Structure formats: structure tokens, C-alpha cells
Amino acid sequence: MSLRILFALPGLHRVGRGAEIALMSVASELAKGGDKVTLIGSGEPSEGTPYKFLHSGALPRGLFERFPKLPTLRNETAYEELTFLPGFLWQYNPSDYDITVACSYPFVQWALRRPSGGERPAHIFVTQNGDWPVHSNKSEYRFFSCDGVICINPDYYETARSLWRAALIPNGVAVDHFTPGPGDRAKFGLPEGKRLVLMVSALIASKRVDEGIRAIAQLPDVHLVCAGDGPERAAIDRLAAELLPGRFTRLTAAPADMPLLYRSCDAFLHLSLDESFGNVFVEALACGLPVVAEDWERTRWIVGDDQFLCNTRDQNALAEQIEQSLAPGEAHAEIGRERAQQFSWANVATQYRDFFEQVIAARRSSAD
Fold it and tell me: Which UniProt key words apply to this protein (predicted)?
């Protein structure tokens, strides 16, 4: 029997961040499998999507970077979500769905959990942006509720499983889109004949792009490419101008161009110490790039034991791992590609669907 499923997130169809890509990819697979899937986001409908898309306007978070940090409105993301709420409430009818899925908190979550005249659909919270709402009893997090939690890494799952019905389901990768092949450095304005290390990251402090610049500065013949934007852009540009003159390129790329950008570079560097999952890891692996990242259990759960992991707070160790990653050979690339196959969106969507059925069955059982 098909399910009526709603995915709600302000950035859907407007930006290509990790959470948006994850929800749209799962939604597409479920719709192709026969479920009736609807997305509500601040972008516009696209031709050829297998699901229904409803527009709800929102002001982009970049407009709120200098706004005051207040309880509930703690960052620019919360402000963006608040502006999304009026249009979302206009579009959302609880009786249209068997189950709803969201990963932002608090405003969309509260709207989905508000009392309604009829039966409220089951609700799933996905820990795309962290698991703090799942276990905290402070401030607005005291009002969190759901019928099930999808945890995108083992750490979150161990915390959530004692509090909520929970499932451990990773994010994935479009294995038919992110593939090995020739690059096109000219398209992105990248230098030929140089060894290129790629960072794909929002320009915020937690992504530690500045530490990547400092590490690359120790490798005189390496050029750093940074694909991303964010409030730290000016500071990153200044540091790169000081430490990497002529050896730094910052750009933004459309989601459709990302596989080509990966293939245009020689190694992938990601330095976040609190990444929920990191779709970029499996994207890089799928394109055949070696990965340099923090050596901790969550990273190894994603990339395996064959990548270039270290204590990235040690600048010398980090620079050494980057150097080693730049000549791993074709055999190493094949290992990464094989691992990426485990994270296909088709496999991930099947796990989502199984968990949806479990949650709905549990609700029906408790109501009897």
C-alpha cells in the first residue's frame, strides 16, 4: 500500500546543501517506488520530479547573519525558518498525509505537531543538522516531540534509541551521478598542471576552512579550492590572500556541476569536528577522490579504514596526510568507489520506507 508522505524544509528546491539534497533524494526514490510524496520548500517546482512540490516563500538565511542572537532565534537559520512558517501553514493540511518528515527545529516542527481537528499524521525527525532537539531539555528543546527519529550516524542513534523510536540510517549519494571521469578545470577557472585539494563547505567557523588554508600553506606546490559560501567568507579570503597568494580559489557551483568539480581535483579535505554525516565524504569517494579528515569513529563509519585520517588539529600531521593523499593510485580510488556504492540513495530510501511502516504500525497499535 502506498503512503502519503510530506517532506518539509525551507531550503528545498532553492539551495543544494546536504540536508536539502538528502530529503529530495529520498523523496524522489520513494515517489518512484509508488508512494505519494509531497515536498514543501521555498524554491520553485522543477520539471520532471516524481513528487509534488508546493512553494512556501522564505527569506534566505544570509540576510540574517548580523541579526541579534535571541532565545529560539539563535542563528540565521532560525530566522529563515520563521519566515518560512506563514506560507507553510497555508500549504499544509494534516489530513493529506500519513507521515511527515522534517529536520529543522523549532518552527516547522511545532507546526507539524500542533493540535488539529482530525487525526495528526505520524511525524519523523531526521538528525540532519544535529541531534540536540532529540535529547535536550533546555529552552525551546523541552517542547520537542515526534513519533520516530532517523539518526544519520551511530553516535546520535545511541543517544536517541533510549528516548524515542529510532533508526540508524545514513545519508547517501547519487551513484549514477557522482562517478569517476575526466574533469574540466577551465570551466571552474582552476589552474592546470597543479595539484588541487578540494574543500566543499559552508564558510562557518565549525567547518575549519581556515585550518585547511594553514595546512596547505605548508605544501608549496598545492592549490586549495574551496566550494562554498557563508558569513566567514571575508575572513577566509583575507587569510588565503596572506598564506596562499596565487594558490587559492573560492567558488560556488551548481549541484549539477559538483561531480565535475570533484573530478577536476586530486584530493578532498574536510575538517569539521561535529559533522552529522557529511554527504561530501561519499560524494568524493564515489568520484574516486582520496579523503583527508578527522580520525574518529563517525568518520571511519562513513569512509572506512583506507582513507587519510589523522588528528587534524595537529598541523604537521594534517599536512603530511594531505601530501600522502595526493598520490594514492587507482587501486585506492577503486576502494573508495566500492564503499560509496553502499550509500546509494535507493538503499537509503528503502530503509526510510521500512521505518515509516514501523512507526505507523506502532501508532495504530497504541491507538487500539
Answer: Transferase
